Amino acid sequence: MTSTGNYMFVMVGKDDIPVYESEFFNSSTQRREDTSHLNQFIIHAALDMVDDLVWGTQNMYLKCVDKFNDYFISAFVTAGHIKLMLLHDVRNDDGIRNFFQEVYELYVRVLMNPFYEPSAQITSTFDARVKLLGRKYF
């Protein structure tokens, strides 16, 4: 199931340090150069919303936690409080939920690596796999 739209995915670790970042753009959309910085700012601004919401639910998937102009921010929080956040301009709840679930499974595999230090920048085949999932769901 794919839908057209623009997506930016960020994983945020302890102390709000970015662990991983990736963008998925619709090929027909004209992309501006400053878009990445604006998207990072929008996601960073939603971190407080996620921190507040996580204590009010037992669900890991928090759905849409914030909105900025035409953009939505969806979030998923792991048991270790790693925040998976997705900035998107198209509603795609089922695709986003499935994407988060599969990325979470990939992240658990990364955590099982004895050489990976939690909340450190992720460098491995993780990036290629996340991009494949982005193409699959978005």
TrEMBL record:
Pfam family for this entry, one: Sedlin_N
Gene Ontology BP, a term: endoplasmic reticulum to Golgi vesicle-mediated transport
One GO CC term, this protein: cytoplasm
InterPro entries: Longin-like_dom_sf (IPR011012), Sedlin (IPR006722)
CDD domains: TRAPPC2_sedlin
Gene3D superfamilies with a match to the protein in the record: 3.30.450.70
SUPFAM superfamilies: SNARE-like
Protein name (record): Trafficking protein particle complex subunit
